[in-house]
Amino acid sequence: MDTQQFGHVDAEATSVYRRALGYFAVDRVRIATLVALIGVSVCVGLLEAWPLAVLIDSVLTGQPKGDWVHGLFLSVLPASKVGQIVGLVLMGMGLYIIGYLAWFGRMMINYHLDYRGTTRVRHDLFRKLQHLGLTYHRSHPQGDAIYRLTNDAFGPWGILDTVIGTSVAAVMLVVMTAILLSQDVSLTLAAFTVGPFMLWSNWRFGVRIHKRALASKQIDADLTSHIQQAMVRVPLAQTYQREAYEFRRFRGAVGRSVRALLRLNLQEQLYPLARDSILAVGGAIILGYGGYLVYRDQILSPVEGGMTVGLLLVFVDYIRKLWEPLKWLTEFVVKVRTHEAAARRVFRILDTPETITEDPRAEDLPVSSRTMVLDHVGFAYRPDYPILHDLCATIGPGEMVAFVGPSGTGKSTLLALMLRLYDPTAGALRLDGIDLRAARLTDTRAHMALVGQDSLMLPASIAANIAYGRPGASRNEIERAAELTGAAAFIEDLPGGYETILAEGGQNLSGGQRQRLAIARALVTRAPFLILDEPTSALDPHHEQLLVETLKALKGGRTIVLVTHRLESVVACDQVFMIDAGRIIERGTHHQLLGLNGHYARMWSGAVARTEARMQVEGQRSTLTDAQLAG
Ligand SMILES: Nc1ncnc2c1ncn2[C@@H]1O[C@H](COP(=O)(O)OP(=O)(O)OP(=O)(O)O)[C@@H](O)[C@H]1O
């Protein structure tokens, strides 16, 4: 129910506020300065109308009013009329300048607090998103994370800003009310007749605005996701001429966002309309009733200490100024709830449990050649759908091994387990007997250089792309890695050479070029394990052969774990594991597996037949034999 949702500040909300304000704990001095400057602004605001009132009522009439405010002003002014006029003019000017300086200081501190606090929130959020595992990232749209980082991160600052603004408003309201009451009780009460109506409009519109702001935020986050995904799909849409379909989807998403915004805007605009109409009535009451009081006390039956023109001016000024703090107070719940919703979206991510965690007692595992053991490893993305079953294998230091088998049988998943991108749901992976879950995560990952199927490239120079995994790599090491993967030739042909800047995703390179750079990136690291998922899928036979030679040369120094459908590259492996439906069904060297005459042998025959057919197509008479391929 609306009212409950809006009015009830639960324990969770309290903790959201506490946590949001905690982001500004280090800014205590700034906040104290801000509060002091606000104090100055409030005093100036309270005093501003008085020089004119004193001038009219006490100086120009020739009969100084006896009340305390007039007394206060007159006590610092000279006795002569001219001196008093000049003094009051200077006071008015001085108040204006001090007020402006205080305002300037407040704004600058506000900006600093906002940007510094929001930056801290963003740092935390970004770090958390970096640490959340693939399970999170593969089940949440990227646009949602972008929206939280760019928009929701302002939530904690919004809460602090609203709390400060409203506290100041409350103080201002109390002091102004006290001053007004000390001047004229009936006119002050008349000014507050609109109070209940203000509260009513705040309540009514506050609930609606809060709900619609939340809905609009969610729809905007979806829109950001949608745009991000649509941009990725542009080449696909062009290929299959689905531009019209994509545009319709985009138009739909934008339409939903606009409709949500319009629903929100309607309430946001109706609210001040209702509020200002109520306040206009209040203003009319002050002017009408106050005007009458001046007429009564000054003309009809003059009375000392009655309502004066100067005092009416103060009332009119205060009433105008009262509306601002009233606005803060009445909008408080709406504003703070909206910012709370944003902060909650941030904290929800920060509180998401990390699926891959590091045991506080995790062991150091210095980078070194080690034996990897798959100890009855099982894995399931979903509890009811296991992918890997009871995998057992030992991979010795410096060995070259391959996992082969039909598509979708869990080979890439197994590689992800080796990097602890996921943890096994049964059994364990061990390095020199240490369960990966018991070792420091960064140490485990420092052992592995993974080349995935996607060959991700950054919009940076080729050299920076190769050195991404080891920023300190020397130019020689970068060039050597490029030579080993056969990338050097095409890099040197580029006008910018190694300094050529790649387009987003490396789109200005061919698939095979990207793949060679991705492998060079892995080679440049000093990781003892090279883990390669389909490393030759985009390579021509020449570059594939070059890579196989490179891997053979690296064997012994580094442990190489290959997943591939190109069986030519596994011939030199020390062990080949044939996986089917998540189980190792055959294992041995290439020749041992051929001898088994089982699944692997059948796959190999198919591979040979395809290679022969390809070579025939290329017009090269092939006398290819198993032995030659294996050689
Ligand atoms: N993030 C995920 N969530 C749920 N299921 C997944 C996820 N990633 C992969 N799968 C499923 O796990 C199974 C194994 O996928 P995996 O990518 O490991 O196979 P693969 O043997 O490497 O296939 P390929 O040879 O085609 O690369 C597939 O059925 C796939 O649909």
From TrEMBL:
It comes from the Bacteria. InterPro entries: AAA+_ATPase, ABC1_TM_dom, ABC1_TM_sf, ABC_transporter-like_ATP-bd, ABC_transporter-like_CS, P-loop_NTPase, Type_1_exporter. Keywords: ATP-binding, Cell membrane, Membrane, Nucleotide-binding, Sugar transport, Transmembrane, Transmembrane helix, Transport. Residues 32-338 form the ABC transmembrane type-1 domain. GO terms for cellular component: plasma membrane. Residues 372-606 form the ABC transporter domain. It holds the Pfam family ABC_membrane. Its main location: membrane. This is ABC transporter ATP-binding protein.
